[in-house]
Amino acid sequence: MLLSLLLLAQVTTADAVATCRVPGDPQQRTWSLERATPSTWRVVFTSRALDKPRVELPLGSAQPHVTRPKIELSFASANGGRRIEWIITNGPSSLDLQVNHGLEVNVERDLDPAVEQMNTEGALTVACTTAERAAEWQVSAGVARSVNLYQSTAGRAYAVQTIGWARELTQEIKLIGIRGRFAWGVEATPVFAQFEPSRIYGVGFAPVVWRWNFPPQPEWSAFAELSMGGLWTGESIPENTGKVNFTAHWGGGVRLRPRGRHALLLAYRFQHFSNGNQLGSNPGVNSHVFLAGWSHRS
């Protein structure tokens, strides 16, 4: 059901090769590079200042140069009325677009006068998302402390080390009014080490990690996620229960100071593990977990 909704929402953006925005722009301007036909391209512009849903600017004979993970477009019309320099990556990018309707309408009689509203007035730093569906490795380590909640108790502390992989299954879409990309991944916890109130070690694995990647900003990007899996420990956690627990967490994080495909990772999650009422009672453990690590997108 979830995948069906995501795929349905994706239909409206299926022809967009890249979409770029100015972070924090009150006009909410967007420039999208779209393939109009197999051999022709156009720029599609939207803004709160427009009195119509969108404005299209055909690019004639322009052909973007695509080299993963970058798209470069350099084009100028013969009469100088249309010029574009666009460097697109999945994140910080640059756009310089200038169009003069008075000159270009002599070439294309049906050109919309509103095309001049897409002008950037010089090179503009934008944040772009591309149609490329990225895969991501995350490696992190952190500490956790349990809290009093329902049948769980405070006073438990542990450290974890995680390794996760996820792939985006959609291009940028809007779901329930929120823009982003949906990714599905897995996560291993090769190190689980409780050091308070007693020393207990274990490993974990989550075959379900649902991640929502929000549109990236020039210096950071954010995500929210939900996970389900299992935890196997050498001793029972909590005491007098079992050595096998179901796990789940919800949380999110940020990727900071991206350099190419690498970024510093900071994340928070609220984690729960318990026996799932297999033993007639379900005391469980609920914890705040803080993680730091590294993200690599490819």
Overview of the structural elements:
With 298 residues, the protein is mainly beta. The protein folds into 2 domains: 16-130; 135-297, Porin. The chain contains 2 helices and 18 strands. The strands form 2 sheets. The chain has a 9-stranded antiparallel β-sheet, with no helix packed on it. An 8-stranded antiparallel beta barrel has the order 10-11-13-14-15-16-17-18.
Roughly how much helix do the residues carry, as a percent range?
Answer: under 10%
Number of distinct beta strands: 18
Q: List SSEs in N-to-C order.
A: HEEEEEEEEHEEEEEEEEEE
Question: What is the SS-derived class?
Answer: mainly beta
- Largest sheet, strands/sense/barrel: 9 strands, antiparallel
Count of discrete alpha- or pi-helical segments spanning 4 or more residues: 2
Radius of gyration, CA atoms, in whole angstroms: 24 Å
Q: Distance between the terminal alpha carbons, to the nearest Å?
A: 28 Å
Find the CATH topology of the largest domain. Porin
The CATH top-level class label of the largest domain: Mainly Beta
Strand content: over 45%
Describe the protein's topology.
Layout (H helix, E strand, L loop, with lengths): L1 H9 L5 E6 L8 E8 L2 E7 L8 E4 L6 E3 L2 E7 L5 E7 L3 E8 L1 H4 L19 E7 L4 E12 L10 E12 L4 E3 L2 E19 L3 E14 L6 E14 L10 E16 L2 E13 L10 E13 L1
Antiparallel strand pairs: 1-2, 1-9, 2-3, 3-4, 5-6, 6-7, 7-8, 8-9, 10-11, 10-18, 11-13, 12-13, 13-14, 14-15, 15-16, 16-17, 17-18
